Amino acid sequence: MIVEEKYIHVNGINNKECLEKNGNNEIYKKALFFDLEHYIYKKPVCIGVFGCAYYDEALRKIKITQYMIENKSDALRILDLAKEYFYKAKNELDKEYIVTFSGNNDFTIINYLFEKNNINIKVNEYFESIDLQKEYEKIAGKVIGLKNLEKIFNISRESELISGATLAKTFYRVIKDDDYFSRMPDEKKTKILRYNGQDVISLFYMLISWSRYAHKLGE
Description:
Blueprint: E1 2-9, E2 31-41, E3 43-56, E4 61-68, H1 74-91, E5 97-100, H2 103-116, H3 123-126, E6 128-131, H4 132-140, H5 146-152, H6 164-176, H7 180-183, H8 186-208, H9 210-217
């Protein structure tokens, strides 16, 4: 399994620009930013990449953690690491929210796999969920994709786009062929990790600049 951890410096945060819930405009301090890449065949089969981040207020940095599957035996290990990550976030880091984009899909997948493997946690019940796609829909009255919302927020992706079908085929091969990952070019592995990491980072930056761009959301 590939385990990646990195920090990204955050220049400054204006609380007045942050997404507000129930009068709280400091949600980012108590939030996780979460995104999965996965493989489904009729039912969820495995998590390909687990990506999650939080804002470290003391360091003024985002800490991003990613787990990427290398073979079939890693499928359960990723779930165990995800469980440990969520427990630590809740009980040691005092996180209360989980921010996603169209998160019901990811929650359905990870909760199904947790239950299947007797891991007693439902992520969207363990944390209060904030779905930025739904927050946009409240303002605009229509659904938008993440990449189009990034354009509204002037977020320039540093990663190449990858289709869900391409990711699914990749993780299918990883599950079926124990040696496939070792044959995969390093550039492809890096591309997938960067793609997932960019999704997570975008969630953070959209949350902390929500009101700055709110006037554009309904256009």
